[in-house]
Automatic annotation (TrEMBL):
It holds the Pfam family DUF559. This is DUF559 domain-containing protein. It comes from Hyalangium rubrum. Residues 342-403 form the DUF559 domain. InterPro entries: DUF559 (IPR007569), Restrct_endonuc-II-like (IPR011335).
Length: 428
């Protein structure tokens, strides 16, 4: 059955729909899949806005294979929570200990001493995946490589990723686990992702779980043979508004940008990605800074800062780059015993991004300093990208496409991500 009608909905309507979906999960225990049909940046922004007052994170993944989706969710979870402490508290509650008592008993113990304590309590705990995962988490040493952690909990659940998701979701306090968003545009991707999402919804009905794609992928999927995944997709559909480049230009002018007509290519790129109002406001600040710097070079540093803030927000909104880059990150080496700070650094992909403003071209020494920095980054395995602050505004679509190409290529080269909780060079 093909999709007949899907009205674009206002942001306020989407927020209300997200709330309704969560009430179904929490109050009725109904596995509910949210399907946001529209641009990925807009979908991510709306979900984060809904999650923010709940103090919950959003794990965004472009994979559709179940094990990779769950691996990404586990990575997000262990970055933000002490899952060993959660496991100790859960196991302690199961065997009737006071809150925090088992955690206290295990703190500072050697591996052997922890095993002795656990041998006393594990036989008293109920059988099941949650207890098995508790055992794995609590028997691992504190500095244990996270990649092996995931492998160990996966093995404890007989290699079934959905059981890993359910077990870890059970261990953490209610309402604290990251929400999950799968995003992609290809019809074949969406068909696989919908089936993965349906299985994960069944495994953990309380978990906020969403798909994001565009209408052709949804129509193609709903035109195929009916399954439970089809029913869940159809029931969870929410259309997103998609402002045109002309509408974005009007909004830029309302933000005080005088020459928005010169930014048509960048506005087309932003419209393609479904820019949020917050991101558009920052783009307007960067555009105003660019205009000010054009007439007064003294404003160039401020213009660069605004362009950098825009790029930071954009990198965070892109599904392809979300969570990969850190702002003003220090590299793990020094030049002449001085720390090396990079505008945007991804240790995972070994990519460094530098934003060059007017001051980068004021003299030969500044040029030499930048080249020395580039060389050292390259010698340490980083691909260095340099963009003009002016181009971040005026040629955004070109920069966006460059970043997507580089990130895709570096992911292919990396093949396997570094272990959970470790940096790409193996540091703790």
């Amino acid at each position: 059955m093909s999709l007949v009608a899907l009205e674009p909905r206002s942001d306020a309507f989407v927020q209300q729909a997200l709330e309704r979906h969560q009430r179904r999960r929490e109050e009725q225990g109904i596995p509910t899949l949210t399907v946001l049909v529209g641009r990925s940046g807009h979908a991510m922004t709306l979900l984060r806005r809904w999650l923010e007052p709940r103090r919950r994170l959003l794990c965004t993944v472009v994979a559709e294979v179940e094990v990779e989706v769950v691996r990404a969710w586990v990575e997000t979870l262990v970055r933000e929570r002490n899952v060993r402490a959660d496991a100790a508290d859960f196991l302690g509650a199961c065997v009737g200990l006071a809150p925090g008592e088992l955690r206290t008993r295990l703190e500072g113990r050697t591996t052997y001493e922890r095993d002795v304590v656990l041998q006393e309590f594990l036989p008293l705990a109920p059988d099941g995946d949650a207890t098995a995962v508790c055992k794995v988490l609590l028997q691992l040493s504190t500095g244990h490589a996270g990649g092996l952690l995931f492998s160990a909990v996966l093995a404890a659940c007989n290699g079934e990723p959905a059981r890993v998701l359910a077990a870890l979701h059970t261990l953490v306090p209610a309402g604290t686990a990251p929400a999950l968003l799968l995003t992609g545009v290809e019809p074949t991707w969406f068909a696989r992702a919908a089936r993965t999402a349906a299985r994960l919804c069944d495994a953990v009905p309380l978990l906020p779980l969403a798909l994001n794609t565009e209408r052709p992928a949804v129509d193609s999927f709903l035109g195929s043979s009916e399954t439970q995944a089809h029913a869940m997709v159809r029931e969870g559909l929410i259309g997103l508004e998609a402002p045109s480049p002309v509408e974005l230009r009007r909004r830029l002018e309302a933000h005080g940008v005088r020459h928005a007509d010169t930014l048509s290519d960048s506005l087309s790129g932003l419209a393609e990605d479904g820019v949020s109002e917050e991101l558009l406001a920052q783009f307007a600040k960067a555009a105003r800074g660019r205009e000010a710097a054009a007439s007064n070079p003294a404003e160039a540093d401020g213009a660069r800062s605004e362009a950098e803030r825009f790029l930071r927000m954009m990198l965070d909104e892109f599904p392809d780059t979300h969570g990969l880059f850190e702002l003003n990150k220090r590299a793990k080496f020094r030049i002449h015993n001085r720390p090396v700070e990079v505008d945007f650094l991804s240790d995972l992909l070994r990519v460094a991004i530098e934003i060059d403003g007017y001051y980068h071209f004021r003299g030969p020494e500044a040029y030499r300093r930048d080249r020395r920095k580039d060389l050292e980054l390259q010698l340490h395995g980083y691909l260095v990208l340099r963009f003009l602050a002016d181009d971040v505004v005026a040629r955004w679509r070109e920069i966006r496409d460059t970043l997507r190409q580089v990130v895709s290529r570096r992911r292919d080269l990396a093949r396997v991500p570094p272990p959970l909780g470790e940096d790409a060079d193996g540091g703790g």
